[in-house]
């Protein structure tokens, strides 16, 4: 009958639309569930990649540290500080871990700085690029010695104008004074400026270490026994005095 046919057709249509709606709802819920699962998997993959990167960095540091005799301590960077007169980084190891004032700090890329203050569970590293930092160096190619000084984001070296220096020359630690063993990489020559006095030249050195990207460091044994004696004799109150003065000035 026409009426029953129309009714039956309408019922089937409504039923079909409803079932389609239910199917779409199920698909939407399934999509939401899958989206959440994918998000969790992506997060897990990022965590895994981060752990793999950390393992790679630590392996590199451990491998580099094996070249040195004596104490070496691997520590994480936990903060950076810029006092009015000192540029430093704070690391996660201190006296309780064997860290002492004067110990050299390096990465596999090169020299980072020197321990200038040590607490029980932390230490502050005086950075190579700080304007108050000095280190005895060798020009690797010519074996000429000099004293490198920090200069904000790079370092400078002043030498007699007659000394041959080339762009790209590599600088390493001399191992004579300052606690660093001989031959540690420091940086490369990127600029040479001849002074108006016609006697000297100022050499700009770019450190191998990228100080904005350091995450872990190696603290090495202090090889300068005389420096160690001076520090032990001076005492921590005297050694920490510049920090207290700068903290007071900064506050």
The largest β sheet comes out as:
6 strands, antiparallel, barrel
Total number of distinct structural domains? 3
The structural class is alpha+beta
- Please tell me the overall pLDDT: 78
CATH superfamily label of the largest domain: Rod shape-determining protein MreC, domain 1
Unreliable parts: 3-7
Task: Categorize the overall geometry.
Answer: extended
CATH architecture type of the largest domain: Beta Barrel
Report on this structure.
The protein is α+β, with helices and mostly antiparallel strands and 251 residues long. The chain has three domains: 1-66; 71-130 and 212-250, Rod shape-determining protein MreC, domain 1 (Thrombin, subunit H, Beta Barrel); 134-207, Rod shape-determining protein MreC, domain 2 (Thrombin, subunit H), CATH 2.40.10.350. Helix content is 35%, strand content 31%. It is built from three helices and twelve strands; from the N terminus they run H-E-E-E-E-E-E-E-E-E-E-E-E-H-H. It has helices at residues 2-65, 225-234, 236-250; strands at 72-82, 87-91, 104-106, 111-118, 123-127, 134-139, 145-151, 154-160, 170-173, 185-194, 200-207, 216-220. The protein has a six-stranded antiparallel β-barrel with strand order 1-2-5-4-3-12. It has a six-stranded antiparallel barrel with strand order 6-7-8-11-10-9. The longest helix is centred in the first third of the chain and has 64 residues, at 2-65. The N and C termini lie far apart (95 Å). Residues 3-7 have low confidence and may be disordered.
Layout of secondary structure:
Layout: H1 2-65, E1 72-82, E2 87-91, E3 104-106, E4 111-118, E5 123-127, E6 134-139, E7 145-151, E8 154-160, E9 170-173, E10 185-194, E11 200-207, E12 216-220, H2 225-234, H3 236-250
Antiparallel strand pairs: 1-2, 1-12, 2-5, 3-4, 3-12, 4-5, 6-7, 6-9, 7-8, 8-11, 9-10, 10-11
């Amino acid at each position: 009958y026409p009426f029953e046919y129309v009714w039956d057709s309408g019922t089937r249509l409504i039923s079909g639309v409803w079932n389609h709606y239910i199917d779409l709802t199920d698909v939407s819920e399934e999509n939401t569930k899958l989206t959440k699962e994918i998000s969790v998997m992506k997060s897990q993959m990022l965590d895994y990649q981060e752990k793999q990167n950390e393992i790679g960095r630590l392996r590199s540091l451990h491998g580099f540290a094996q070249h040195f005799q004596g104490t070496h301590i691997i520590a994480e960077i936990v903060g950076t500080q810029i006092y009015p007169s000192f540029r430093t980084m704070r690391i996660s190891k201190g006296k309780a871990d064997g860290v002492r004032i004067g110990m050299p700090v390096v990465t596999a890329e090169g020299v980072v700085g020197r321990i200038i203050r040590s607490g029980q569970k932390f230490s502050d590293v005086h950075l190579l690029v700080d304007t108050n930092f000095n280190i005895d160096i060798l020009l690797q190619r010519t074996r000429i010695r000099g004293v490198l000084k920090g200069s904000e984001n790079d370092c400078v070296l002043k030498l007699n104008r007659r000394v041959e220096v080339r762009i790209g020359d590599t600088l390493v630690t001399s191992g004579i004074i300052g606690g660093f063993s001989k031959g540690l990489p420091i940086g490369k020559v990127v600029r040479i400026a001849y002074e108006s006095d016609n006697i000297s030249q100022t050499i700009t050195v770019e450190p191998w270490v990228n100080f904005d990207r350091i995450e872990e460091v190696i603290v090495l044994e202090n090889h300068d026994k005389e420096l160690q004696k001076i520090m032990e004799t001076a005492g921590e109150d005297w050694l920490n005095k510049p920090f207290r003065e700068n903290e007071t000035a900064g506050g």
